Amino acid sequence: MPRSPTHAPRTRIYRPTPRNLARLARLLQAGELVAVPSETVYGLAAHALDASACEKIFAAKARPKTDPLIVHICELAQLTTLAHAGPLAQKLAAAFWPGPLTLVLPKRPAVPAIVTAGRDSVAVRMPQHPLFLALLSACAVPLAAPSANPFGYVSPTRAAHVKAGLGGKIFAILDGGPCAIGLESTILDARNEQQLRILRPGAISAAELSQVAAVRVEDFSQTPNSNEVDESPKIAPGLLSRHYSPRARVVLYEKIPPRLASAAQPDEALLYFQKPPADWPRTDAHRAWLTDNNDQAEAARALFATLRTLDAQGFKTIHAELAPEGPLSTAINDRLRRAAASAQ
Q1: Residue 194 and residue 121: Cα distance in Å, rounded?
Q2: Where, residue-wise, is CATH 3.40.50.11030 in the chain?
Q3: Which residue spans of the chain are classified as CATH 3.90.870.10?
Q4: Mind listing the pLDDT tens digit for each residue in 308-323?
Q5: Helix orientation angle between 296-312 and 329-340, rounded to the nearest 10 degrees
Q6: Where is pLDDT greater, at 257 or 158?
Q7: Cis omega (within 30 of 0) on the bond before 266?
Q8: What percent of the chain has pLDDT over 70?
Q9: pLDDT at 3 over 90
Q10: CATH class of the domain comprising 12-219
Q11: Residue numbering of the annotated binding site
């Protein structure tokens, strides 16, 4: 495989044909980057056991090396080559993989320090998306893959989002269509099987994990001061106080009041959770919503794409509603709160 040219690459979106999958697998084996679809968001993948390849992820995203990467596998047997997984961790993996659950476990020496922010733990997941699984199988190596976007910006849920953010910085994007979930995976700290802790909420809830684990799973993602200082090496990704952020300022409400809708300025957008009534103020392009019928799965799929659309329209402020209580409200509101957090 020839060396990559030094000039900016021409970013190409590849259709998911067998020939293209084989080509992209060879690129990954050779230490190149490939943006890949998953059921959560698109990821920027590299050979997880190749420190030089993983360095390219941080360079392309302008990502601080204190923020670790998630390692993706396609077979349960691969887990024990990367991490020390006790009986409970293996039970959870068997129950929820492939799927949107990441386990943080003590790492094995094969995992490079750059993947783990120098810490002695590693985050591991088996994705559910058939194309990602097929690419992992074709590569026959684990792949490290954070979200395929400039660091801190809104996560990509379509191949076009990846090209908009990383075009000219990577060579290849595998198009797998829109992401089915649209939010990053639940991250579970399983280093201590007597103290399971959710670090980042996702589509798999604490209640679902507790039922399988037969022990209480605590949700630390909303605990005050549970995040470390932003400059310190993290246990897992998604723990920074400000993240998933559009260029526009985001202001949050339980419900957007009609008076605000009436008084909104031309550079202000209103992002409702559910489609507002027809007689609600502002019936023009300043309004957007995440779901027509209070469907939280629909809202989760739409969140990042809608934030990107409003950003592209040039709004300076997005007034956004939090999700009401429901199966995905914790995860949706976590992303909204981090998007709205002040820059450090």
Answers
A1: 17
A2: 249-340
A3: 12-219
A4: 999 999 999 999 999 9
A5: 20
A6: 158
A7: no
A8: 92
A9: no
A10: alpha beta
A11: 40, 63, 72, 125, 145, 147, 155, 185, 200, 244
For residue 272, the number of C-alpha atoms closer than 13 Å in the C-beta half-sphere is 23
Q: In this structure, how many other beta carbons lie within 10 angstroms of the beta carbon of residue 210?
A: 14
From the annotation, which residues make up the binding site for ATP? 63, 147, 155, 200, 244
Binding-site residue set for L-threonine: 40, 72, 125, 145, 185
Residues in the chain: 344
Residues 6+ apart with CB under 8 A from 163: 11, 13, 173
CA within 13 Å, CB half, 186 = 29
Rounded CA gap, 212 and 218, in Å? 14
Q: Is the pLDDT of residue 285 over 90?
A: no
Mind listing the pLDDT tens digit for each residue in 194-234? Answer: 999 999 999 999 999 999 999 999 988 765 444 444 578 99
The domain over range 249-340 is classified in CATH as 3.40.50.11030: yes
Is 230 in contact with 240 (CB distance < 8 Å)?
yes
The span from the CA of 84 to the CA of 150, in Å, is 32
239 class by beta-carbon count within 10 Å (0-12 exposed, 13-18 middle, 19+ buried): buried
Q: What is the dihedral of CA 330, 117, 247, 290, to 10 degrees?
A: -30
193: which residues sit within 8 A by CB, 6+ positions away? 86, 87, 88, 89, 215
Beta partners for residue 251, in sequence order: 319
Mean pLDDT of 144-164: 98
What letters, b where the CB count within 10 A reaches 16 and e where it falls short, cover 182-201?
bbbbbbbbbbebeebbbbbb
Paired tokens of 185: 């995976």
The C-alpha atoms of residue 25 and residue 137 are separated, in whole angstroms, by 9
Mean pLDDT, to the nearest integer, of 133-141? 98
